[in-house]
Amino acid sequence: MNEKTGTITHLLRAFQGGDDQAFSKLIELFHPQLEEVAKACLAGDGMHDFMQTQSLVQEYFLRLSATNQLQPYDSKAFRSFAYKGMRRIVIDKARRQRARIKTVPPTEENDAMDHDPSFSDVDRLWLEQALERLDEAMPGMGVLAQLKYLGYSKVEIASILEMSPTRVVREWNKCKLFLKALLVN
């Protein structure tokens, strides 16, 4: 274990023990990395209309500090945990937007065209449901698909999930078949 990983693991445990200073230090250490994850969560499908990268990272940290219930005990698990948390925030915002679209009647101030759901919102919600079904059918593979969706390489995914790159390719092929079957149905 390198020095930085040891520090992160120590800070995670301290935060779980109620140390608020440890949480502040975690924010400093992970902020640049979490900005990249946030950019990936928001990229490519119009989610920047709902929120900016900084606001996603800040909202994630606010929710995390409010719960004080971190489960992972190492930095790899924390990154995965952070991605899931940010993705949940984005999905929640997309759902609220879709609900608002359904409940706000068109008026002069809020023209119906301004509230028409974009295909990307539907895509993101479909993807969330598909990944949940994938994880139910093949436990643990939802995370692999999420990492692949974020653009991680097979070597990076192998490192995060602690499996060989060959196994990552094999499992990703299974995930693709499952997701394609869902898409067809």
Q: How is this structure best summarized?
A:
This is Sigma-70 family RNA polymerase sigma factor. With 185 residues, the protein is an all-alpha fold.
Commentary on this structure:
The chain is an all-alpha fold. The chain is built from eight helices and no strands. Helix 4 crosses helix 5. It is globular and about 50 Å long. About 8% of the residues have low confidence.
Topology:
Blueprint: H1 3-16, H2 20-42, H3 53-67, H4 75-103, H5 119-137, H6 141-149, H7 154-161, H8 165-184
Helix pairs in contact: 1-2, 2-3, 2-4, 3-4, 4-5, 5-6, 6-8, 7-8
Keywords: Sigma factor, Transcription, Transcription regulation
Protein name: Sigma-70 family RNA polymerase sigma factor
Pfam families: Sigma70_ECF
